[in-house]
Amino acid sequence: MKTVTGQPSCSIQATLDIVGDRWTLLILRDLFRGVRRFSAMQHDLGIARNMLADRLGRLVDAGVVAKEPYQHRPVRHDYVLTAKGLDLSNSLLALMAWGDRWCHDGDAPTVLVHADCGTPLEIATRCPGCDEPVSPTRIRSRSSRSDASLRDQAPPEGLSGHEVAAAATAFQQQPTNGGAL
Prior knowledge:
Blueprint: H1 11-19, H2 22-32, H3 38-45, H4 49-61, E1 65-72, E2 75-81, H5 83-86, H6 89-102, H7 145-151, H8 161-170
Antiparallel strand pairs: 1-2
């Protein structure tokens, strides 16, 4: 579903429009692993040159990756993650953790560790308000930030208790599967 401006109304769809195919995710994985050169990515991934060029071009156009020249005759580039690209780290870590659990029976082929101390990393969703871990069944969604501001306003005068309760419920969507997406 698209909004009036032509942008997807769902953040997941908007993200998939940029990174939502197998090759793009594997290119991002390589970039996070420090593979920066076209030829090294092509060799590592076994991807056709035209497909790699297309996916890298899309990532550059989206501002996820930047090209930095490392040679001038002929011009060749390193591909580096921008701040926008670096923000995809948690998404890739979550996909990796899911694959470790459900595709490799919990036996991770690669373990990610903290560079400073070597401790294996964990993926966790925490509430910034109470610093508690939050399971997927305890996440709820709201339609927008403006709804949150409306919830904090006093109800109009003359509403019955039932009407106030119904309005409050509208701001606490509770999907039947217990999730928020």
